[in-house]
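Hey, can you fold this one?
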Amino acid sequence: MLVVTIGLAAAGFAFLIIALTTGSIIWAWACIAICLAGAVLLLVSALTGKRAALPLDEPDTTADVDTPDNTDFPGNHGGSANENGEH
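Sure. Predicted structure:
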C-alpha cells in the first residue's frame, strides 16, 4: 500500500505542476483529489499496521537463547570505574 501512496503523491505532484503551468483550475482540483486519496490510503495503512504489531503484554520468545550473563565477561565491573577502581 505504501507503493500506491507514493504513486499517488507523484501523480498529485505532476497534476500540481500541470495546474501551475497551464493555469487551469481543473488540474488543481485533480491534484487536491489525488492528494486526499493518498492521505486517506496512508492513514488506513498506518492504522492497520499498528494492529498487526505485537501487544506489549505478550512475552518475547526471541530471547529464549542461552546467553551468558554480563558478569561472565572479564573486565565487567559495572558503573564507570576503571581497572584501579577510580571513577
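The chain is about 55% helix and 0% strand. Let me know if you want another pass with a different chain boundary.
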